[in-house]
């Protein structure tokens, strides 16, 4: 077996499959594009689903890749085991309706065992297979694999709902008896016992059937096109080929671990307690790549995952004695390890470091807040005579403050308290159940459509025409080919078309189809790409259409122009965002409609009003400069030399279109555009908002819609001016400012009067002092306007020795407000509120010296006041 670096393993994998006629698919962004079923790209096949379900036919049915992936379903196990990771690389080879079982197994065996390639010893390889899949068993036997090395496993069948599915055969490497201290042997594989001896290094999925949940597996129908989907973990291959005890002792992780040794001053012991080193090394890889791909730490979705990873790594840093921000210092090391295939980490190093460091600093403050919260919880337990910290409180510390359970346990035990582990696990499970319920269903691939996949007739989109004569070459009605259609809805393909098929954020053209007499025979309501790339027109049929006949296709020119204005404005907006808020603000999605444009971009905070003003101003300046918009066709490399930006999630062929707006904007784009920026007229931002962690959205309008938006604002301003009796619009701001000052003065005066009234009323309230259990108390209903007035009463009460306890209740509207204040160690205000609040159908709590509650049963006020003595 060859001793190879991880970079050599990756490259040899790609080279081998290229030698077998595969095209190398570049590693896709970790943030999924147009796939709401995935939080992250989590496998090599995740970005190829469109090929497997037949919605797109690839240029080459043989594909190979090295795909960065993230899985976060068991973060807690990272660092504890030898092979759990959040970010990992999946090496894959794929066949889309081309070769199948025989070639996949034969070539896989060749790559692993040939002296020219990996040169694994054959006697160290074991294979599992689906018991009913005798074809795979026989293929392995034919290649010379010993029957004793072939293990039937009932679970070797891949399916995730309706769609492509099939048996799989997995390849394992036997690391020997040193990793099997109890000498269990092959039963470890056959009985699926967790072990470190037999390491799964490759899985070959034979995508053979269309899974149908309504029927037994034995009745699944075979796919029209059978596919091969494989996955081999680079980290595992590296561990085996480098003779490492775990994945973490490979060249993918050890340089990071060495840096952590320097930062902590502590050595990494591969046989000792090294969990913290492993957690940090794993998590900073995931953070570096995810942030580089546009995801940012936050409180939900992907952002929450990153924040949790970072906080877990920081806490493990503290275990190693690192009490200052340090993770950001590891980003360059991650980039250097991966530079040969993933140069983007070093290219975006400054931005990634900035985000990681800022998040570390924020968490440091959060830890301090959490410590204060935990101290208060423990103090409350002590005053209540309890000895156990409950699971919900532990979960809140974990979920809200990022406190690992181990840290909470350590601090609680130091203070003499026990930990409710079962309660914490129950609270954790509740959160996981909520998260699963919120996940968008339908993660499986779609069903293959043989009819659409079978469209091979050529069709050309003409960028320069809005009307064309074209021959009708395909008619599809109810998913069947037809010679003619005279009513209803149909899908049509012409040999050429002026209709733009929806792509790259630009919506499809609408328009009509006319016959030789000039009569409209169909209305085009949508245009999408067929699996082989032809524009597929969805039409409402008004009169007969026949295959082979020539028709006149005419787009709605006014609609197209509106869309083009918005599309070109999107390019200008993208450039303005780069110039004003930073180059990290890259496109994360867009929509160019006839009436508006929507642009999503990565950014870690809300865009300020001043930044929005500058962005809007810069875009309009470029519009008024009347810059020609030019398009050239070239290859990808030349386009990149021109400085063209490749947009988020787009795939580009051998020939690409480069759209330039002077020297201001250069982008790869397949859409249609105005000829000159002056045609846009005017650009106006309507709204800026957050749509997810680290992702912002701008809604804007151009041309006529922008004029109408300005007109609407002008009319509103005129109405305000009339109300304020301002003769000129420019006087409105001063008038509003003056009114605001006047309102503020009146509010101060009102507050002062309320305080005086409360003080006067308090004099009477504080006279009615009672006693219970040796405590002097005041319990009274007061007439106040809001809950703030109750606190004013309490502030006045604190100034003198009126009583030991104060209980005030007030009916405010249809609600009841309760306040309890205490100066005595014998009376805990929070506990008293918890006991009294249910009487008014309420709930509340607070500190030992003051607590409040709200309720809805005003009829319960007398009973509440009567219960104070008993509660004391």
TrEMBL record:
<keyword id="KW-0479">Metal-binding</keyword>
<dbReference type="GO" id="GO:0004813">
    <property type="term" value="F:alanine-tRNA ligase activity"/>
</dbReference>
<keyword id="KW-0436">Ligase</keyword>
<keyword id="KW-0547">Nucleotide-binding</keyword>
<dbReference type="InterPro" id="IPR018164">
    <property type="entry name" value="Ala-tRNA-synth_IIc_N"/>
</dbReference>
<dbReference type="Pfam" id="PF07973">
    <property type="entry name" value="tRNA_SAD"/>
</dbReference>
<protein>
    <recommendedName>
        <fullName>Alanine--tRNA ligase</fullName>
        <ecNumber>6.1.1.7</ecNumber>
    </recommendedName>
</protein>
<dbReference type="InterPro" id="IPR002318">
    <property type="entry name" value="Ala-tRNA-lgiase_IIc"/>
</dbReference>
<feature type="binding site">
    <location>
        <position position="669"/>
    </location>
    <ligand>
        <name>Zn(2+)</name>
    </ligand>
</feature>
<keyword id="KW-0067">ATP-binding</keyword>
<dbReference type="Pfam" id="PF01411">
    <property type="entry name" value="tRNA-synt_2c"/>
</dbReference>
<keyword id="KW-0694">RNA-binding</keyword>
<dbReference type="InterPro" id="IPR009000">
    <property type="entry name" value="Transl_B-barrel_sf"/>
</dbReference>
<dbReference type="InterPro" id="IPR018163">
    <property type="entry name" value="Thr/Ala-tRNA-synth_IIc_edit"/>
</dbReference>
<dbReference type="InterPro" id="IPR050058">
    <property type="entry name" value="Ala-tRNA_ligase"/>
</dbReference>
<keyword id="KW-0820">tRNA-binding</keyword>
<keyword id="KW-0648">Protein biosynthesis</keyword>
<feature type="binding site">
    <location>
        <position position="567"/>
    </location>
    <ligand>
        <name>Zn(2+)</name>
    </ligand>
</feature>
<dbReference type="InterPro" id="IPR045864">
    <property type="entry name" value="aa-tRNA-synth_II/BPL/LPL"/>
</dbReference>
<dbReference type="Pfam" id="PF02272">
    <property type="entry name" value="DHHA1"/>
</dbReference>
<comment type="similarity">
    <text>Belongs to the class-II aminoacyl-tRNA synthetase family.</text>
</comment>
<feature type="coiled-coil region">
    <location>
        <begin position="729"/>
        <end position="763"/>
    </location>
</feature>
<keyword id="KW-0963">Cytoplasm</keyword>
<dbReference type="InterPro" id="IPR023033">
    <property type="entry name" value="Ala_tRNA_ligase_euk/bac"/>
</dbReference>
<dbReference type="InterPro" id="IPR012947">
    <property type="entry name" value="tRNA_SAD"/>
</dbReference>
<keyword id="KW-0175">Coiled coil</keyword>
<comment type="function">
    <text>Catalyzes the attachment of alanine to tRNA(Ala) in a two-step reaction: alanine is first activated by ATP to form Ala-AMP and then transferred to the acceptor end of tRNA(Ala). Also edits incorrectly charged Ser-tRNA(Ala) and Gly-tRNA(Ala) via its editing domain.</text>
</comment>
<keyword id="KW-0030">Aminoacyl-tRNA synthetase</keyword>
<feature type="binding site">
    <location>
        <position position="571"/>
    </location>
    <ligand>
        <name>Zn(2+)</name>
    </ligand>
</feature>
<dbReference type="InterPro" id="IPR003156">
    <property type="entry name" value="DHHA1_dom"/>
</dbReference>
<feature type="binding site">
    <location>
        <position position="673"/>
    </location>
    <ligand>
        <name>Zn(2+)</name>
    </ligand>
</feature>
<feature type="domain" description="Alanyl-transfer RNA synthetases family profile">
    <location>
        <begin position="4"/>
        <end position="712"/>
    </location>
</feature>
<keyword id="KW-0862">Zinc</keyword>
<dbReference type="InterPro" id="IPR018165">
    <property type="entry name" value="Ala-tRNA-synth_IIc_core"/>
</dbReference>
<dbReference type="InterPro" id="IPR018162">
    <property type="entry name" value="Ala-tRNA-ligase_IIc_anticod-bd"/>
</dbReference>
